[in-house]
Each structure stands twice: as C-alpha cells, then as structure tokens.
Design goal:
The chain is α+β, with helices and mostly antiparallel strands. It has helices at residues 2-25, 52-60, 74-77, 98-109, 141-145, 152-155; strands spanning 85-89, 113-117, 132-136, 186-190, 211-213. It is built from six helices and five strands, in the order αααβαββααββ. The protein has a three-stranded antiparallel beta sheet, with no helix packed on it. It has a two-stranded parallel ribbon with strand order 1-2. The longest helix is centred in the first third of the chain and has 24 residues, at 2-25.
C-alpha cells in the first residue's frame, strides 16, 4: 500500500514539474501590429484594419446584416430574404470565379446594389452602362507603408471631409464623408459631355466632362 502511494506521489510530482517547466519555457508570440499594407478587413476583426465596428454599426442602426458565406452568384437564386445591397471589402482572400462575376452583374441589372470598398477592386465588376468607363488610379504604396492605421489623426491629416451638395437616395441623411489620406481615386471617363455637380471643394467633383476623378 505504501509502495503504491509512493509511486502515485512520485508520478504527481513529476507531472507538476513537467507542467511548471512547460509554463516557464512558454513564451507567447507577440501579435504583429496591423498594417494598411496587409490589412485584415474581416468583420470579425475589431482591430484598426478590421470591419467589425462597421458591421456592428449597421446592426445597431436597424439594418439586417448577414455575413455572406456562399458563392456570390447565389444572390440571383435567393428569393426569400434576398439582400438589397451586397458589400465587398478588399483585399479579398480569393478571386471571384467567372460565374460569380456574371451572377453579380445580373443581380445588379435586376435592381441589386453592389458596393465595393477596395484599393484594387475586381476589374470585371468595375463596369458601367452606356459610354461611361471607370478606372482606379494606382496606389501610393509609400504613404500606405508609412501610415499607422490606429492613428486616426494621421490617417485623416490634411484631408477635409466632403459634404454632399446634391440630394439623392445615397446622400439622404449624410452630413459629410471623411476620407483617409491614403484613399485611392477612381477616374470616370465618358465620351458624353455631361455637366454634373458632386461638390465644390478640393475633395469633390464638378462638371464631369468628359473626365473626372473622385
């Protein structure tokens, strides 16, 4: 009996020593700070490059928000509780298949609203009707590498907020939109001479004829 008790005691002590040595030698890997050069835009990420705050804001302001987990072209087939707006936030973890691009464009043609928040949007989705063409101006990688996404003051330095001057469904209830200093610019081209006023300060656009950048 004493021998068994001795063996059990030795076993417990040995296990305790091993656990102690493991705890002493364990060093938690320090998580690298987030960077705009390699952002994590996941709606599960509460960090400075994540979109969890955006997801939470939409939910708490009464929007019915879901995380889409099936191929994008399923939007066309979904009839019950079908989304009216589909948001793509880049950089994407995978490319869109051809059938997804076709399905998304069909869904938009049928009345859906596609919103792309990306420095390098899907080229096949950046398309318009008639004679309008949209192109993305190349990124300023030096500015991106030099920017701390957690420093809001630096992210918005020397960048004034743009205020809508024309009423529309998209600007209803919007007082102003604050741009980041490292935002990319979209260039809109048209063979048509169209006078259209979006704004009147340095961050707005007036008279799209025949080219404008926003």
């Amino acid at each position: 009996m004493k021998q068994k008790l001795f063996i059990i005691t030795v076993f417990i002590l040995a296990a305790a020593i091993l656990v102690g040595l493991n705890a002493a030698s364990y060093t938690q890997k320090q998580q690298a700070p987030e960077s705009e050069a390699a952002p994590n835009r996941s709606s599960y990420n509460p960090g400075p490059t994540g979109t969890q705050a955006f997801y939470t804001l939409l939910t708490e302001t009464g929007r019915k928000v879901i995380r889409w987990q099936t191929p994008a072209d399923d939007l066309v087939a979904r009839k019950v509780d079908a989304p009216t707006t589909f948001v793509i936030i880049g950089p994407r973890r995978r490319d869109f298949a051809d059938q997804e691009v076709t399905g998304l464009l069909r869904w938009v043609a049928e009345g859906g609203r596609l919103v792309m928040i990306d420095r390098e949007p899907v080229e096949r989705l950046v398309t318009t009707t008639a004679k309008w063409k949209v192109a993305v101006v190349p990124q300023n990688f030096i500015a991106i590498l030099d920017t701390d996404p957690s420093d809001q003051a630096k992210m918005t330095a020397s960048t004034a907020a743009a205020k809508p001057v024309q009423l529309s469904r998209l600007t209803l209830g919007v007082n102003a939109v604050q741009f980041f200093a490292i935002c990319v610019r979209d260039r809109i081209r048209s063979d048509l001479h169209v006078g259209y006023t979006i704004g009147k300060d340095q961050n707005s656009v007036t008279d799209l004829q025949p080219e404008a950048a926003i």
